[in-house]
Amino acid sequence: MSRESVKEIFHTTGAEALFITDPHNMWYISGFRGGEGMVYISPAHQVVITDSRYTEAASRESDFEVIEENSAHKRPDILKELLRADHATIVGYEDKFMRCFEFSRLQNKLTGVQQWMPLDEQIDEIRQVKNEKELALIAKAEAIGDEAFSEVLKVMKAGMTEMEVAAELEYQMKIHGGQRLSFDTIIASGQHSSMPHAVPTTKKLENGDFVTMDFGCVYEGYCSDMTRTVVIGKADEDQKKLYQTVLKAQQAALDGIHAGMTGRECDALARDVISAAGHGDHFGHALGHGVGLYIHESPRLSPNDSTVIRENMVESVEPGIYIPGKYGVRIEDLVVVKEDGVLDLSHSPKELIEL
Length: 355
Fold this sequence. Notes:
Blueprint (H helix, E strand, L loop, with lengths): L2 H11 L3 E4 L2 H8 L7 E4 L4 E5 L4 H7 L3 E4 L6 H12 L3 E4 L6 H10 L5 E4 L3 H5 L5 H22 L8 H14 L4 E2 L4 E4 L20 E6 L1 E3 L2 E2 L2 E6 L5 H20 L6 H14 L11 E3 L6 E5 L12 E4 L2 E4 L3 E4 L2 E6 L2 E4 L11
Parallel strand pairs: 1-5, 3-4, 5-6
Antiparallel strand pairs: 1-2, 2-3, 7-10, 8-9, 9-12, 10-11, 13-14, 15-18, 16-17, 18-19
Helix pairs in contact: 7-8, 9-10
């Protein structure tokens, strides 16, 4: 955690104490991985509040003070004591995560708070630029995906179902070190591949099918994300042309993205290629998104995002073309943005693979 960045929140907002309840932000700020409870921060106190299931782990993982909440010492009472000790009456809270009933309960109990200050995405923004340790963990997670993809190609064939391919891919990520999935695996074959977020079904792979595989795992808390599209059997000329258009669009983005660009400008690098090929209406999603402790983080590489991309942000680069009722293609790499370009963390082949 950049504790200087947290101090900056106090300076810019005027908050006198912060309530952190998003599990990933709790981990990032305090080191506590349990995700249950709350992190309280003020200029004088850094506290993890959790129950007896997690107090020992919290004490081992975090250098924050750990206070146990229980029926005799409930969270509002603990917070009241801390706020009183800090003479704090202005509280910043994670409005995008805290549930309405929890916020209402705290408002009713903590009558000494004079101002509740929504933090919006200010804590998330601290996490946008990754340090060297974070980059190494994300690179490892992506390498696990590379290994899993390589193994799946050895067994994929006509007659397998989408669900069987998903199961094999997930198994390979697990045995290569992935601790859990970073999102539900997408395996979409044939006409299903025209749906960007198709759910694997019992449909069998058939000769001539495009098969889009979008997958990722979590390693030491950090996510990976990769998409590859292959063909069962032989691709026809239309499939080859479509695939090469997507690959050309992705390469234009990989060659052009660098720190200092906006998300909108990054997106345009690939979108212009796809539009020039006559498929502008068939690319409906953003070019990419941030990746870290969450699989979808800000900033996005999107026509609607004017955020300036900074060095050591990690972004997906995933153009696609989807023709309803026919098929689709997506190719996705995970990259680290640098001053003069990008460092590509995905190393699986991208030439059209025919199985």
